[in-house]
Amino acid sequence: MNHIPPRLVGLDWGTTSCRAYLLGDGGAVLDRRLDGRGVLPLSRSSENRSAAFEEELAELCGDWLRAAPGIPLLACGMVGSNQGWAEAAYRHLPVDLTERPESLTEVPTALGRLFIIPGLFKDGRDDSPTDHPDVIRGEETQLLGALPGDSEAASPPAVVVLPGTHTKWLRLEGTLVSDFVTTMTGELFGLVMQHSIIARLAEEPPSPDLVAFDRGLDTVFAADCGAAPAAPADVATSLFSARTLVMAGELDPAAVKDYVSGLMIGAEVERFARCWLGEEGRTGRPVTICANAQLGSRYARALGRAGVASELAPDDAVVAGLWRTAVALGLIDKEAS
Amino acid sequence: MNHIPPRLVGLDWGTTSCRAYLLGDGGAVLDRRLDGRGVLPLSRSSENRSAAFEEELAELCGDWLRAAPGIPLLACGMVGSNQGWAEAAYRHLPVDLTERPESLTEVPTALGRLFIIPGLFKDGRDDSPTDHPDVIRGEETQLLGALPGDSEAASPPAVVVLPGTHTKWLRLEGTLVSDFVTTMTGELFGLVMQHSIIARLAEEPPSPDLVAFDRGLDTVFAADCGAAPAAPADVATSLFSARTLVMAGELDPAAVKDYVSGLMIGAEVERFARCWLGEEGRTGRPVTICANAQLGSRYARALGRAGVASELAPDDAVVAGLWRTAVALGLIDKEAS
To answer: What homologous superfamily does CATH list for A185-312?
Structure first.
């Protein structure tokens, strides 16, 4: 173990994986374990779901917990869903991420006290067929970690996008989340590249092909619906070009995956920039992108095409977010925070 | 067998199934066999693909062919693709469907001479990132069958939509196809309802739920991107509402499938009406829908929302199309046509 005293075990416990972080004073990462199993495999594998989660926790970081008895555990993500370990209530918008929630889900375990961070809920409007309810679990913590440390004083980003299986676009006023929208681009991309007719003709690229990605963006951003008859550039339609361009010898099978990535990320970003950001996107603060460098740079390229400036948040935002939440919850002694 | 002399065996041989029709004078259907295997199972099942197709043909309608030696066989669909029995060349737009193609693929079989109808190819434009090549195989025959019989004299429909796994939108001048666009709404709908997070919460409806379908249309057609910030109504985004509305108790799990159908067909039709039909859609002739009554009525409802009138083509258009093509090809004696 480390000679710096551990203060918190932070858990980013999502649908497919669990990542554990041992944190010391100021949120310094003392150790990490990234290969824990997520909610989906755990809830499938066992009759006694609670026992399955506890065993996984013990296996992943039991040694940390035995070496530092009484250390608090704080988790975010789908572990708090109705498919998870224990259901954590949602907080309804608007929500200040640095404010202590009214209720906090605590799970007593043999290894210590585990707290689960609540997700966020946006209420729909009954009188509107387009304002649907929306939910977040886990990204609220990543988001908090991506905001500047002195966010109460400084001007934090006004719009943050967290690309992933279910990408989240959020609007903030300081640390207050005022609006967000989920889009399933990432999941649809996975389905298309695994199961569709496009998957059958695509070959795995030797390395990411940004030229093919940009060609996908071209298709989306050059489309001009105003000049009818124009070929529609929505995903369902432009996707078929991945097949016909290969048939016509105009697209390499190894370029299909990145071309489709460009089509789909392009369609999402074009639509969000036009409908959801509007004028604000071109004149406001840069959009903060919270993703790994590879995926983040794709969103940055697409936003650039839409005339929207962007910046990439630091890596491991979720770790900073777990620490800041623990401090806000009073789980950390003042002098260690 | 029938006492009316058979003149043609027509085969609608697609990706997943093969339907065979025994036709007499004037294209009258004397018998039909609808349960043949399609190109995908046949090309997977055998080392000797050609033998697999011939065996399937013999099993499906060998008795017809032995009873009427020398009768011609005419096939349309993916049987003419590079995954099919023999590759039939494409005809490049513009194409008059009643004109004899320059080349015709003939497959000699032990049971008779089989001809395969060529598909249609739309060339892309190298200088345009949005004008992609596009292809049709099989729908060209269905389309010909859907046009009025005296189409050279009368005014045929100017726009035809053939909904399916890969929906085709076509523009015609008489029997001349001048443009078409493929969109993969049907395939994406299948992927979403089989493999996505939405599939996990949906329950099979006891019967088609058009109220839920219309609710999906509402989401699409009420969206007003002009009034930013508006929640985008593209498929990837609106799809997530199928999950959150169920979570919020505002959508029955048994209504999810038809709600998603409304979202996806609505998004396709809204986009085609706006970008591809333009003003013509609201002022021109009704759009002809070539589909079974169930799917056809969904497209009609969505087109109605977009202010576009429509009419449903008669059932079994592909049979009429096979007959008319056989006549155009000279496979049928003049007096029998």
So the answer is: 2-keto-3-deoxy-galactonokinase, C-terminal domain (3.30.420.310)
Inter-chain contact A229–B272, Cβ cutoff 8 Å? no
- In chain A, domain spans: 6-137, 185-312
CATH, domain B6-137, list 3.30.420.300, 3.10.50.30, 3.40.50.2300, 1.10.150.130 = 3.30.420.300
Neighbours of B244 (CB within 10 A): 18
List, edge to edge, every strand of the sheet that includes B105-109.
B29-37, B17-24, B6-13, B73-76, B112-116, B105-109
Mutation pick from B87, B183, B221 vs chain A, by most beta carbons of A within 10 Å, is B183
State the ipTM, two decimals.
Answer: 0.91
Do the strands A167-173 and A159-162 form a parallel or antiparallel pair, or are they unpaired? antiparallel
Tell me how close the Cα of B63 comes to any Cα of chain A, in angstroms: 35
Q: Do domains A6-137 and A185-312 have the same CATH topology?
A: yes
User: Which tens digits make up the pLDDT trace of A128-146?
Assistant: 888 899 999 999 999 999 8
Asked if A274 is an interface residue toward chain B (Cβ–Cβ < 8 A), one would say yes
Return the residue in B78, B130, B173 with the most chain A beta carbons within 10 A, the one to mutate for interface testing: B130
0.80 exceeded by the pTM?
Answer: yes
Main-chain phi, psi angles of A35, to 5 degrees: -115, 30
